[in-house]
Amino acid sequence: MLNFAERTKNYACKPMLMSMTGFGRSTVELSGKKITVEIKSLNSKQMDLNARIPSVFRAKEIEMRAYVASTLQRGKADLNVSIESVGTTDTSTHINTGILASYKTQIEEASATLGISAPTDWYSVLMRLPDVLKSDSSEEASEAESKALTEALRQAVDLLMAHRRTEGEKLEKFFAQRIETIGALLERVARFESERIERIRMRLEENISKIPVADLDKGRLEQEMIFYIEKLDVNEEKQRLTQHLNYFIETMNAPEPGQGKKLGFIAQEMGREINTLGSKSNHAEMQKIVVLMKDQLEQIKEQVLNVM
Known about the structure:
Blueprint: H1 4-9, E1 22-30, E2 33-42, E3 47-52, H2 61-72, E4 75-85, E5 93-95, H3 97-114, H4 122-126, E6 133-135, H5 143-209, H6 218-231, H7 235-252, H8 260-281, H9 284-304
Parallel strand pairs: 3-4
Antiparallel strand pairs: 1-2, 2-4, 5-6
Helix pairs in contact: 2-5, 5-7, 5-9, 7-8, 8-9
């Protein structure tokens, strides 16, 4: 029996990302047989497993599917199992001579009755008829073959998970670099904030001075200007974006795999803060910074789809 629950824990030992992309192949040989298991996986929102398994192993299919699905958790996976004879010239398929002779007799009788000529190439006709070939192989796998299949499947899945871990390490570095870049860009925003507010104030005062109003309540005007400028304040967006950046790294370093969906949600929240920062900026240099942030975030969003 495949103890998939216990083995899955082994893949949660290290705090690292797991990619959904992977490949594993294993071959196990026993007396006269070679069993090969290949499994590959790509990214998908859920677990989507397609299996091609020889009929001799059909009784093991449910167990195999449960093991693969529990270990891989997410991804579009293709499982291929093959079994072939090796190291022998014997074949388990034989010609059923009795049935072959019976068919020949019936054809000769039909030929005489109907007045038509018998076939000149008997073998090409007879070998196409039902049950002429018989197989001595068992319809079910032997205990040794079942054990060999189990071992091949485990090895293939282990290799695939190792591949996923390797790809996950690459993703971890990729995300860390881009999160760091967004953080550095966010720090650049501060140098333009005081200048931006002063420009907005001056522009408002200049435009108001052009309005031909005889009696202007300067106190009320000052209040409205303060209210307008406060609406353009970006400190809250900066603070929340910083929190999201930290939370992304924290989630990425979680001790158990399966962070992909959560990282996707965090990236969406980061996008909201960056968009708001851009809409409030009213400053050419700050908007350039926002564009650079968006570029980094889009790269993150694209690769997050590959995280388990």
